[in-house]
Amino acid sequence: MIKVAVSGFKGKMGHEVVRTVLREEDMELVSVLDHQPSEKNINELPEFTELDVPVYSDLQALLVETTPDAVVDFTVPASAYSNTKTIIENGARAIVGTTGFTAEQIRELTALSEEKQVGSLIAPNFAVGAVLMMQFAEKAAAYFPNVEIIELHHDQKLDAPSGTAVKTAEMISHTRQKIKQGREDETESIKGARGADFEGMRIHSVRLPGLIAHQEVLFGAEGQGLTIRHDSYDRISFMSGVALAIRKTAEVDKLIYGLENIL
Description:
Layout: E1 2-7, H1 12-23, E2 27-33, E3 55-56, H2 59-66, E4 70-73, H3 77-89, E5 93-96, H4 103-116, E6 120-122, H5 128-140, E7 147-153, H6 163-173, E8 196-198, E9 201-207, E10 213-221, E11 224-232, H7 239-248, E12 255-257
Parallel strand pairs: 1-2, 1-4, 2-3, 4-5, 5-6, 6-12, 7-9
Antiparallel strand pairs: 7-10, 8-9, 10-11
Helix pairs in contact: 3-4, 5-6
């Protein structure tokens, strides 16, 4: 039985992770974390009255007292790095869907996980379809170097561009011929109109109520275009990837960046 803790359990993603862990026959929910909980036990919530799972506000205490094998973290970008570092330092596997990591932070956490020999995963997106979209885009970019990314999310998302968009751009850069797109003398009459610039690619972020998580990768060439799109209509779309990560990180001894690396 895999002992699992959920950090950020009151958020929409965290709540879905709790329900997923409870459904999996080889997993046991041992603790949950919230930054300012009003409850001491999850059974104080109407949906979980039959459970006996302690609620913590301190991650270190949760790790020491409930000794989870894996901690799934869906919190906020401001705490993602420190949470992941604390989890790995305590010998637990970190399964992180929170975005906002810098390249340097990824390198530091990877080195720490190798030192501790603890498997972990940071994934900008846990939907298998989104991972396939990124892989298809990476392949297409070798033939269509003119590309722009449009990511669309709910209006409560804190960071922009999304981690998925950044990861997609990083993957595309592995195969894309580096060119400057558009006219050399292009100007913006309103600053930011052309979006963020990633090695000549443009990334555009949309934030609207009613959306969950969506992304288009648009390629253009002489006389043709190619659009690769993925849509998550419900947060359940991410849960098969989360469950897979909880299991697969037990088979590795370092941090992995991107769900595609364990599929």
